[in-house]
Amino acid sequence: MSNNIIFHDEFMVEKVNPDGKKFEKVSRLICKGILYEVELLVDINSEIFEIKVEEKLGVAIARNLSLDGSETYEQVVGKPSLLDQYDYAMHGVAYKYKHVEGSTVEVHVSHGGLLARLKGDERHLAGIKVDDEVYTLIRRIEAAPGSSSA
Amino acid sequence: MSTTRRVSKLVDGSAGSEGFGKKIKEVGFGLLSPEEMSRVAEVECCNRELYQMPSRNPARYGCLDMRLGAANKATTCETCRKRMDQCAGHFGVVQLVLPVFHAGYLKHVLTLLQCLCKTCSRALVKPTERESLLRRMRSPAADALRKASLFKRVVERCKVVSTCPYCGSANGPVKKISNQGVVKLAHDKFKAWKGGLDDDGECPHHEKLRAMQYLNPLDVRRLFERASDDDCELLWSSPAQSRPEHLVVSSLLVPPTSIRPSVAVDTPGGGGSNEDDLTVKLQEIIDVNAALRQAVTKGGSTKMVLDTWAFLQMQVGQFINGEGKKPIRGLCQRLKGKTGRFRGNLSGKRVDFSGRTVISPDPNLSIDEVGTPRHVASTMTFPERVNALNIDKVRQLVLNGPKIYPGANYVETASMKRSLQYGDRRKVAKELKIGDIVERHLLNGDLVLFNRQPSLHKLSIMAHRVRVKEARTFSFNECVCAPYNADFDGDEMNMHVPQTHEARAEADELMRVAANVCTPRNGEPLVAATQDFITASFLMTTKDTFYHREQYCALATYFDSRDSIKVPKPAILKPRRLWTGKQLFSLLVSTETLSFELKERNYSSGLDACPNDGYVVFRRSMLLAGNIAKKTIGDGSKRGLIYSLFRDHGPAAAARCMNRLARMAARYLGYHYGFSIGISDVAPTRAVQTLKEGLLKSGSEEAEALIATFRDDRLPLKPGCDALQSLESELAGLLGSVREKAGKNLMSHLRANAASVMATCGSKGSAINISQMIACLGQQAVDGKRIANGFVKRTLPHFPVDALGPQARGFVGNSFYSGLTATEFFFHTMGGREGLVDTAVKTAQTGYMARRLMKALEDLSLHYDGTVRNSESAIVQLVYGDDGLDPSCMEANDRPVDMDRLLYRVQAGDYPNQRTATATATAPEEIRDYLKKKEEERRKAPLEHLDNIPSVAEHASTFARIATDKVSRSRVQPGEAVGAIGAQCISEPGTQMTLKTFHFAGVASMNVTLGVPRLTEIINAAKSISTPIITATLDNPKSEVSARLVKARIERTTLGEIATLHQVYAPDSVYILAQIDARLVAELHLVQITSRSVRAAILRSKLKLRAEHVLLNPDHAHALRIVPPDPSFFGMQTLKAALPDVVVDGVPSVNRAVLNKNDDNNNVVYNLLVEGYGLEDVMAADGINGRETTTNHVAEVESTLGIEAARSTISNEISYIMSAYGIGIDQRHLSLLSDVMTFKGMVLGITRFGISKMRESVLMLASFERTTDHLFDAAVHSRTDSIVGVSECIIMGIPIPLGSGAFKLLNDDDGKRGDDDKKHPHQKRNNGHPTIPTTRRRLIMNHDAAADAAKAAAAASSSS
């Protein structure tokens, strides 16, 4: 794992669109981190990447996409990169870092309006700084139990 | 004395040349003597013929004599030999054989007659008082107002005198007797005569009726002639300017023919002419005068002389005031009214260089442009002076002439002005010299004023730049619709072209659209995205809008960005590269940095994570979350994008953003998205249908249940309501909620529905509109209630008798889609008609109110010393709005800085963080406190990595610097016409106020008048108002029991309510037995009522009973005997009828009191709402906390608590009205209005009475109301008008001393001092006062010197 990944964990999808499907092409996932117990809320384009409840996802937040962490986005196009290891990738900016209570904090990332919110202990989330450009990478690890397509 | 004045001819032939450079200092009013009239006149008119017959030329010595001015275009004036357009006309005179009364002065003549002894002509003031009154009248400190009250006192003193203290003869009242148009004055000489017998030994009392002495004009004139000069002064007239004998006319001035033109009528059998009313009347006067002369000189019978004289009197009266049986347009009628001389011609003038046509929208124009048809651009011109730089360009324009577009219409050289329509343009172009003036066509970029009527506020006239287009209509960007209140359904607008560079510069600085984005009412932006612009932005920024690279780039080019666009990284990289709509929208503001967060209209919960995507986050010019809707880019929002740009990056940035937005929106909807609405959008789905039916069914069942309880008399009563009222109030809530619920549920059912998109983003329509189209129309209301009975015991014959159900009372269950039944349709038209009538009535009312407000406030301006003064330099406010800040610059809730927003921006890094040591320390306390509080909040978080949370302290100095700067920038500029702006800001929202009454403070039974009627009430300072309510706080607000006791004590209790009255006819006596119902009294908590207190109350009442008439019965504690003073049967009956109304307890002027329960957070607090008058009594009542008790009645507050309390009541009440309609008005406007109403020390209404007490200017008052009264009054008292106010200056055509006219050049090039002091007497008075250093008042036109002066002024003001 290269040092440009600032947060990584496996997540269980607990809810999809908890308030009902509000948008045709966008789903909101509520996930629970398996290792750090970080709560993740993330919007994804459901037209091109569909996720069901109880799927298991690998999620990473990275500073850039190159494998060694040295190159910029433009330079990785067409080369082997982190993109190869994930099924779904978004680019965005961390725009808010909020204290909730105790040592719990909230980090907000917006990918052109597709939001991601990580809520957990500040030790795990301290790497993400406000105004950082970040890449949110998601890969399917395990299909939901009972679903036929893996 | 009277000869000291020299009256020159009013229209004098030399005025044209020698009059150059003359300045009108003041206008004096007075009375002309017959000699003066003769001197002024060119000709004595004594020929009754108008024309010499065979030639049809005006007859000599007739009232159309050629010496009175040129009669038509063909002839010249015989006096000045000028043509019609040069000669203003000359006066003539008619010498009357016998004097007559002047119709305008008759009232004053009457007053004077009452003050003078009818025998010796001396004022009837006692010698002891005379000296002091005369001294006070002569005092230079006495202004017109004081003199008026002094004069009133003199008149009152004189009226009571029945014996002349000087000659001892009898004096009585003088009365006007008018009999069929003939006016006579009669002196009832002996009415109050207390003297002895007269010379003949008879008592004049017997002759009382016959002793009436007629005073004919001749008598009166002689009487007045004998009055001494001192007496004249005592009676407020000047011996030099207005001797009282001139009030009786013996010569009549004939106005010039130019103001009463003859119209030649072509009839086949020989010509004729149509004469003006004045000419006809003058002809008659000349005729009657001749007849009278005949009768007097040739010895006619007395009756004949008197009749002719009376007839002459009538004719002269009609000439002056044409009212009467056969009304004509006399002199008064020409001055009076909206189209009269004052309002129609002097205060408002016709202008040249103006155009008007239909308007159309054009999103491709910049917000400060106006698309101008070529026809308009080549008809309206700008006078361009030729100079070395533009001569070639201008020459080409001259060559093009009027027909080829960029051309010119006229050329003006030093010697003459010539049209380019005819003649040799090439020659003119060749001879063009530097210094000539060319009236060229409008070119792109020229500044013009653009206006739409009604011009309710200053934003109704703004300066736009011309963009010449091939169209026949004016066009402009839709963003500017709101300030003009324009739409494109056939509206027309006007254009005016300023004709000087000075005017252009002012228009550019003060009136251009970009400078007027925010309304001065409360600083909210008015120029902002509307309708389709909002819809397009909303659709573009919804969460599921994704674009390919090609789409993204195509759309990005629509933003009109001159810089190259940098395509950002796509939001989704894998599996496919996609950009979002928000990334596209961010390009809109890519050139400015800004950050803000706000909750949009569709926000539900969870801040950033709002499921509807309703939480907008802009950070460093990137749209990170939330869909854009009305709050972000629409008008009326101070938290949005446009406002942020306007405040932080300047008007140009806001304008640029709106231009881009308009271009993008038009193209996005036109070429990419497509947005339309049709019948399918309002067709209910099956689900909606069932939902609606369910709602209707449950609603009507509930209503029926309620009605059933009402019929069974089981309905619980609401406070202060009877059963029917309680039912209506319950039903109103119930049925109202049906439509609301339908609307709410509908919105969630509708997807990708054009109507619902528009309602959600706020571009057009609301949930209610949609629910009316799809689900149900809901309850129709007339006068705020359900439809009332219009037939026998029901609304319409379709319903059963006494029906109370929803359908029978105007509930419409159908929708526009499903169609209305006959009865529903009828009810709907009833509601609709009320709306139409209301609008029609309201426009007239608000228009009049606006006019009155403007007249009262027009001349208030902010002076250089920070005070608000009127044109007479009377101080109205010491500091404008108590802080001298400009309402249009207020960012947050009447405060100049929105600190939350600023802190957010500073923390987001929008500003370079500069740390300065002093910024925080020198900042105002409010700012420092805020910073301290915020940093403390941040430090509370127990985190290791606290630095991840943005710091406050780090940015404190940047914050403080910017905030302090904002405060100092939002100071009002000296000269600002704060009054006029305030008047507009208060009257402009008037048209938006529709409903009349509201429930008061949530109490269902208490209605308060609101809206325009209430506003009128307050502004008029009405003595009796429609819903006076006293809000009383209780000493013990927690206890309901004690509250009820207090309520019972305050409420009026009459004897009839608590006692039964029996007539007792006993053998020995008759009396009325009043039996007090003790149980009832106890139930009502009226513990203080005893038979003793009742007895005292009866004795106090107006029945005039004495102690022996009201007897207590020692055996019966609750019985009283009332013995009628008149023991007859009728005496008994009168007494019995009057007794029940005797108020035995409570405040008599109170109608009722309602206990009001305020329940917030289980903290129950009671207070009393008292309907009626009597604040003083309520405050003093036991159990009432007098300090916390107030009323909505201004006059009562003034009399009880004083003028300061009245002042704050006025602004609080207006504020309350406005808030009920959701209209925000800055407190400063309201406090200015209330200060104007109170600054004289009493509450003055904004009415003709109040305004005439606020200002002295005759011309201003004459241009307001009662024009002729004010003018006659001014003449009688020989008043002068010093032309300092706005109205006067407009009338006289003088620049107004407000705004950019507030200052004058004091130092001119050769160091001569200007005469500024005259215009600003207060500054003169304050000379040498340290706070107004002379350097500060001296403006020097040289730029460097101006800067030096400013520095000097700053130094001087800081040192003082």
UniProtKB/TrEMBL annotation, chain A:
DNA-dependent RNA polymerase catalyzes the transcription of DNA into RNA using the four ribonucleoside triphosphates as substrates. Common component of RNA polymerases I, II and III which synthesize ribosomal RNA precursors, mRNA precursors and many functional non-coding RNAs, and small RNAs, such as 5S rRNA and tRNAs, respectively. It comes from Chrysophaeum taylorii. It is found in: Nucleus. Its main location: nucleus. One of its GO terms (cellular component) is RNA polymerase I complex. It holds the Pfam family RNA_pol_Rpb8. GO terms for molecular function: DNA-directed RNA polymerase activity. Keywords: Nucleus. Belongs to the eukaryotic RPB8 RNA polymerase subunit family. It comes from the Eukaryota. SMART domains: RPOL8c (SM00658). InterPro entries: NA-bd_OB-fold, RPABC3. This is DNA-directed RNA polymerases I, II, and III subunit RPABC3. GO terms for biological process: DNA-templated transcription.
From TrEMBL, chain B:
Residues 245-541 form the RNA polymerase N-terminal domain. It is an enzyme of class 2 (transferase). DNA-dependent RNA polymerase catalyzes the transcription of DNA into RNA using the four ribonucleoside triphosphates as substrates. One of its GO terms (biological process) is DNA-templated transcription. Component of the RNA polymerase III (Pol III) complex consisting of 17 subunits. InterPro entries: RNA_pol_asu, RNA_pol_N, RNA_pol_Rpb1_1, RNA_pol_Rpb1_3, RNA_pol_Rpb1_3_sf, RNA_pol_Rpb1_4, RNA_pol_Rpb1_5, RNA_pol_Rpb1_clamp_domain. GO terms for cellular component: DNA-directed RNA polymerase complex; nucleus. It holds the Pfam family RNA_pol_Rpb1_1. The keyword Lyase does not apply. Belongs to the RNA polymerase beta' chain family. Residues 1309-1319 have a biased composition (Basic and acidic residues). SMART domains: RPOLA_N. It comes from the Eukaryota. It is found in: Nucleus. Keywords: DNA-directed RNA polymerase, Magnesium, Metal-binding, Nucleotidyltransferase, Nucleus, Transcription, Transferase, Zinc. This is DNA-directed RNA polymerase subunit.
